[in-house]
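Worked example (supplementary).
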Amino acid sequence: MPKALVLTKFANEYERLIEAAGLPELELVATSEVPDGLFRAGDSDILVGDPVRVVAALPRLSRLRWVQLTWAGVERMLDPALRRDYVLTNVRGVFGPLVSEYVFGYLLLHERKIVARLEAQREGRWDATLPGTLQGKTMGLVGVGSIGSHLAATAKHFGMSVRGYTRTSADCPHVDRYFHGGDKAAFASGLDYLAAALPNTAGTRRLVDAAMLSALPAHAVVVNAGRGDTLDTAALIDALESRRLAAAVLDVFDEEPLPEGHPLWRTPGVFITSHTAAPSFPSDIVGVFVDNYRRYVRGEALRYQVDFDRGY
Amino acid sequence: MPKALVLTKFANEYERLIEAAGLPELELVATSEVPDGLFRAGDSDILVGDPVRVVAALPRLSRLRWVQLTWAGVERMLDPALRRDYVLTNVRGVFGPLVSEYVFGYLLLHERKIVARLEAQREGRWDATLPGTLQGKTMGLVGVGSIGSHLAATAKHFGMSVRGYTRTSADCPHVDRYFHGGDKAAFASGLDYLAAALPNTAGTRRLVDAAMLSALPAHAVVVNAGRGDTLDTAALIDALESRRLAAAVLDVFDEEPLPEGHPLWRTPGVFITSHTAAPSFPSDIVGVFVDNYRRYVRGEALRYQVDFDRGY
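After joint prediction of all chains, the assembly is encoded as:
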């Protein structure tokens, strides 16, 4: 009989949601405490949790066959010192809608001049400055996986053109034009918005670099909702400070939390969102786990398997 | 040969855009000055312009057959003292995308807690407070015409449920459930967001009243992007001040500009957007005019005709 140990800050909510799903045969222990979890369910074949708790429990689970992360990010799991004798699945698919809400919340903040209007209201001033519109603007997506595809669909809903910069893929119906490899300047040239939602892998490190940033028009806005490492922070600060870029909405950083006194806190045009773009809502994550559990007991391939060597 | 007088603040841009359309046979005079326009093209059969300028020119155009407004609002044209011996068309269709950007800009501002995050950034504080999400929330639309239909489609894109409150219509595929007449409390009960984008007519006056507002949950947010008269301002202020409503995003008011010292400037939870929700961008309006002009010269019925008696 399958036995799952659920290690997460939100143990009670996960337990309630998983039990409500009425999964066949599942024995379940949910706790936020690693030692307690190991004591109560050290013989689990299934481990569900966030990477920090999972890494702590990993060496002690002798019967482990499957780890379902409650996050998208898998960096911590790739440490060569850790075992790899189990199937690792992360969470995908659920973050597209959340990242769309994040990205378009800030795009509309920009177009509608909301910050200036809030300021006008504080002064009791009727501010009839015309807003902009997303219609007819061009969005460039760095990476077009499940998140990028959702962003592309949202951009199309708002009447935008969409470009995609990918390693090789070119199959999203909402992307008008694809760019690859050395096409960074052609990709970035003329964009109104550039959005990156990339995982942290060897291939994505500093992918959004000075070459890409310097090809953007001065009115462009950059959004990074993926991982901090995928963007060249120094080049970004330089572009913003010299007004070669209008704004940057940053959810992720080389070091998190962003250290006190870091220049980004005060760089003109920067919006700091403190790694909140795509939180793992338990109801979303449990949906992924439940679907994978049904596959697991039927002996089918699990969804969203991570390749340890590729890093995603 | 048809002769059009274009009276608008943006005369140069209208002239450029209309000439670029290469309309057959059209003789065109565009100016922002009413007396100048009448002097140069007082024999026009077509008048294009904003309501203030159109009303001023109306009595002097002896050959007038058609007025194309550059706005959606027709209130000024309905004054019984004005002539009605011409076809009046306004602008519709083009405002749906703009009002969607407006409404969802503020819905996402609310869900993503952007105001609090801006404040945290000013304090150099990492604010990892979880955002909310539009997914699974319920939007109530008061009026489901071309604007309401676009709002409904956008709500569906973001994974929301949609209710419509209309006089009789019930044909938008993106509305899950319709309410009419005395169903105000049933319509409003359980809504997360209520959005009104109604024209100002006898039938819409104070349609969003105390009965509708008091049935909303305390966490609900109201958006008014139509006309000020369609909402009971006193009842709204009362609900916000007694915390029976979370917020109100108001583009339109009983008196505009909103007078200095009006309580709405300081009512908790109010966002004032100074009648900027759906500006008439010349390129959009010229598109409507060009299409109607082609119909006009072919002797076909014009689109977006206003019924003087119904008021829309």
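Two points are worth noting when inspecting this output. Chain B touches chain A through 47 residues (CB under 8 Å). The mean pLDDT of chain B is 96.
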